[in-house]
Design a protein that fits this description.
Blueprint: E1 14-15, E2 25-30, H1 41-47, E3 54-57, E4 63-64, E5 73-74, H2 83-107, E6 115-120, H3 122-131, E7 140-144, E8 163-168, H4 177-188, E9 193-198, H5 207-221
Parallel strand pairs: 2-3, 2-6, 6-7, 7-8, 8-9
Antiparallel strand pairs: 1-3, 4-5
């Protein structure tokens, strides 16, 4: 596969703290393949009541889809959908996401420990790839309907971030065994991981997932 260098700048929809006070936390939400930040910013609105002092941002992925003319984006190309492609693609996209997170934290005068990364599908791959390797461990990582790229290379991680994995039992895009494999690999690597398989759910986030995610972040930020 050919890995293209990612653009150097990200941007996307934001929500300021509902309290009107300076931000005490930063929750970054990473969308899936073919979507954009606007697709998941409503998740922020669902959680604002629980986190009145949190700033939210849902950056658009750095690349447009090669075959799409209506704005769909990707963190990295998917053609083979193989373990090597997931690992190499997420590794190539990681630096631009890292720079974005550093800049957002600096703009809010926050330490890296005030960060939570939430990802859906391909965005969950990026939350794993980037979040597990941050110089300062994020407060939490939440992965919806995703998989863990480079599971055999977790010796490169150095984070103490707790991880929540939420996955639909009926997911036909990223089958649920990927969630179980991620949970097992993370646990073996010493990461505190919590797995929830939601019965009857496909490749999406439902109210159960939003509640689980919100409660998990509350505990992490506490």
């Amino acid at each position: 596969m050919t890995v293209r260098p990612a653009p150097t700048h990200l941007d996307g929809p934001r929500l300021a703290p509902a309290s009107g006070r300076p931000a005490r936390q930063l929750i970054v939400i990473l969308h899936g393949y073919g979507a954009d930040g606007a697709d998941l910013i409503d998740l922020s609105r669902a959680w604002q009541g629980q986190f009145p002092d949190a700033a939210f941002v849902a950056p658009d992925a750095p690349e447009t889809l090669p075959f799409e003319a209506v704005g769909g984006r990707q963190w990295f190309a998917l053609s083979e959908r193989s373990p090597d492609e997931y690992r190499l693609g997420s590794e190539a996209a990681r630096p631009v996401l890292d720079r974005f997170l550093d800049a957002e934290l600096a703009a809010l005068s926050l330490d890296g420990g005030a960060l939570a990364l939430v990802g859906f599908s391909q965005g969950a791959m990026m939350a794993f790839q980037c979040g597990l390797r941050r110089k300062v461990a994020p407060a939490a990582l939440v992965a919806f309907s995703g998989l863990l790229p480079g599971a055999a290379r977790l010796e490169t991680i150095g984070t103490e971030s707790p991880v929540l994995i939420v996955h639909g039992s009926d997911d036909d895009v990223v089958p649920a065994y990927h969630a179980e494999a991620a949970d097992q690999a993370l646990t073996q690597a010493g990461v505190v991981s919590s797995l929830h398989l939601l019965s009857g759910l496909g490749h999406s986030i439902d109210e159960r997932g939003m509640v689980l995610g919100g409660r998990f972040l509350e505990r992490a930020f506490a």
